Amino acid sequence: xxxxxxxxxxxxxxxxxxxxxxxxxxxxxxxxxxxxxxxxxxxxxxxxxxxxxxxxxxxxxxxxxxxxxxxxxxxxxxxxxxxxxxxxxxxxxxxxxxxxxxxxxxxxxxxxxxxxxxxxxxxxxxxxxxxxxxxxxxxxxxxxxxxxxxxxxxxxxxxxxxxxxxxxxxxxxxxxxxxxxxxxxxxxxxxxxxxxxxxxxxxxxxxxxxxx
Length: 212
What we know:
Deoxyribonuclease I, Chain A
């Protein structure tokens, strides 16, 4: 029935499904692995299914500006697709799938390059120098955060500096921002600097690891 619907319905044609390497997951007697023994004797069916499609894509163009092809920014690989026969509370057996998602970067070159200057410690104010590619559009709400190398989310910063409010020097090639000594962690360790763009709602530059 699903395969017939995919031939008729345009929106279903783009969906993919893994191979059905498990037996039909419907219709079972409750709390058993026995198919319907009621008077209806309904036929087993692969009713519970997992379908997916990737909708994010971009156009890849040549140097001459001619359209070449569409490239997916997210690739999805199905690792496994299984049923769970031990569950018996319903006449359906649940199915699950695990996927690997690979997200390709929009650019191969970071929009902002960051460097901590001098020796970093909690004994004195510290300096950050950064430069951006010409096409990068900054905002007054952009900030540079100090993160442990093990950070997992943009909100995991130890401290941060506003790129405009805390700027102390600027020229055509780079800008310099300071962080107060009172904000630098006393315990030290290995850290990173990350530039957060308010316009893009994303980290657009990460420094090499350094010691505090």
